[in-house]
Amino acid sequence: MKNKNKSILEKSIEFFTVKDENYPLIAEYPNNIMIEVTNACNLQCKMCYHKHMRRKAGFMSENLYRKVIDKASNLGIENVGLYTTGESFLHPQIFDFIKIAKNKNIKYVYITTNGNALNEYKIKKIIDSGLDSIKFSIDSATKETYENIKIGASWDKLLNNIKLLKKLRDESNSKLKIFASFLITKGNYNDLFKYNSIFKDLIDETLFSFVDSQAGQVDANSMIPDEIKEKLNKLVGSSNETFPCGMLWHRFIVNYDGTLTICCIDFDGKLIYGDLNNSTLKECWNNKKMQNFRKIHREKKFKLLPLCCDCDFVKNDVNKDRDKAKIIKNIIKLGENI
Ligand code: SF4
Ligand code: SF4
């Protein structure tokens, strides 16, 4: 199956599974880079560590951004994600940044957003910018649930923004894909059954997944719905096997200040291995620090690394991920038949 035809679920499962089972310390350059254009956020979602982040909020400068995109383009990188820990549409130059990447022939530029920093003007700019896909973190199907779990957000604003974007996308020649994600927690479990009736015609594809601990930074256990707790614990706890994480082999992750980290949920900058203010992507990718991080993962000595030591992702293999996806599919089917 060609990569572009794969579902977003399948792509995310493959991303976390390291392709080369020798787990080389010197790795090939990745085809993907995520750039934290800002770590600022306008919401305080209950399932997110963001509100406790110790790094100062900041915005990437155009100068640094151009430097990063130039080097990424020279390395032949095709996929650029313009977000990690914050809300990218708060960046005043986000539309210029998308255009800069597209003008450098980056094939696929994508953003995940909470959708609440958008308005009519910005939505028109999204269509004009050449962005390839946008993913809304929706996590709900009712106003009550949404505003209860995503503190500071407005359901009406989200819904109107998605509707307008879909309308403008369909009326233009835009190839923009409109995706969504739904992170299942206790607080939104019942909304799963209503989700499709609201979003089926608005969203091209939705990625459903279970709440996770963001590498031990939030208490996911208390948020897992009682209805599926047993099933899920059995699945994840069924083996003590662990696996090196794809983040260290498949993706560059750049913070707004130019530092490089191995993980896109490294809110506090605990896993830094380079700095693009005084070195290049190429120089950093296989530097001593990065090789050491890969060695720790290859030897499965996760206890030696903050975050990775508490991360659910090292306990997931491809099969477990697919089994989890099946559980979700069955829940949704069950709900539709009620
Ligand atoms: S989940 Fe996203 S929108 Fe919500 S607080 Fe975290 S970074 Fe912000
Ligand atoms: S914390 Fe470590 S194991 Fe977990 S996703 Fe990040 S890099 Fe991978």
How would you explain this protein's 3D organization?
The chain is of the alpha/beta class. Helices cover 37% and strands 14% of the residues. The protein contains 12 helices and 11 strands. The chain has helices at residues 8-16, 62-74, 94-103, 120-129, 143-149, 155-171, 192-199, 226-236, 247-250, 281-285, 288-298, 318-337, and strands at 32-35, 44-45, 79-81, 108-113, 133-137, 150-151, 177-184, 205-210, 252-254, 259-261, 272-275. The strands form 2 sheets. It has a 9-stranded mixed β-sheet. Helix 3 links the parallel strand 3 (79-81) and strand 4 (108-113). The longest helix has 20 residues, at 318-337. The mean pLDDT is 92.
Considering the chains and any ligands shown, give keywords for the structure.
single chain, 338 residues, alpha/beta, nine-stranded mixed beta sheet, two-stranded antiparallel sheet, 12 helices, 11 strands, binds iron/sulfur cluster
Question: Which secondary structure elements does this structure contain, and how are they paired or packed?
Answer:
Blueprint: H1 8-16, E1 32-35, E2 44-45, H2 62-74, E3 79-81, H3 94-103, E4 108-113, H4 120-129, E5 133-137, H5 143-149, E6 150-151, H6 155-171, E7 177-184, H7 192-199, E8 205-210, H8 226-236, H9 247-250, E9 252-254, E10 259-261, E11 272-275, H10 281-285, H11 288-298, H12 318-337
Helix pairs in contact: 1-12, 4-6
Bound molecules: iron/sulfur cluster (2 copies).
The site of one iron/sulfur cluster has 11 residues, from loops.
